[in-house]
């Protein structure tokens, strides 16, 4: 069983930056970040392959967010934050080696870390 623990969320003004971290207790392969705003469905934000050689992003965050990893730790650097980025951000891990885009492709989830962007 893999446990994921996120950190790094908080309150920031529009245009600011935050860096989210996720530490996995066991061996993981593909990892990703999802987010869920109140009243909305959980959505894919960014994913990274097992090797770290492949990454992909939701169109809404391309050019502003960067996902990276170091073994069992994953990071999400978020720049130029907008109020619409406000959500609960979840780290996820999957047994597959490649980037996963659907929440159903992931086997393990963290508890989430809140990101709030004020205008």
Describe this protein's structure.
The protein is mainly beta and 119 residues long. The chain is built from no helices and eleven strands. It has strands spanning 4-7, 10-13, 18-24, 31-36, 43-48, 55-57, 65-70, 73-78, 87-93, 108-109, 113-118. The strands form two sheets. Strands 2, 4, 5, 6, 9, 10 and 11 form a seven-stranded mixed beta sheet that branches. The protein has a four-stranded antiparallel beta sheet with strand order 1-3-8-7, with no helix packed on it. A hairpin with a 6-residue loop joins strand 4 (31-36) and strand 5 (43-48). It starts with a strand and ends with a strand.
Mean pLDDT: 95
Query: Unreliable runs, pLDDT <50, ≥5 residues?
Result: none
Distance between the termini: 40 Å
Order of helices and strands: EEEEEEEEEEE
Radius of gyration: 13 Å
* Proportion of residues in helical segments: under 10%
Biggest pleated-sheet summary: 7 strands, mixed
- Helix segment count? 0
Structural classification: mainly beta
What shape does the CA trace take?
globular
Fraction of residues in β-strands: over 45%
Beta-strand segment tally: 11
């Amino acid at each position: 069983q893999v446990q994921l623990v996120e950190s790094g969320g908080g309150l920031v003004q529009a245009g600011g930056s935050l860096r989210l971290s996720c530490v996995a207790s066991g061996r993981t392969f593909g990892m990703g970040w999802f987010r869920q705003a109140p009243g909305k469905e959980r959505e894919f934000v960014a994913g990274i392959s097992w090797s770290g050689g492949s990454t992909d992003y939701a169109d809404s965050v391309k050019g502003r967010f960067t996902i990276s990893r170091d073994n069992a730790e994953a990071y999400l650097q978020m720049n130029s934050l907008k109020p619409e980025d406000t959500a609960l951000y979840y780290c996820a891990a999957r047994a597959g080696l490649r980037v996963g885009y659907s929440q159903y492709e992931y086997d393990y989830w963290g508890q989430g870390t809140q990101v709030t962007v004020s205008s």
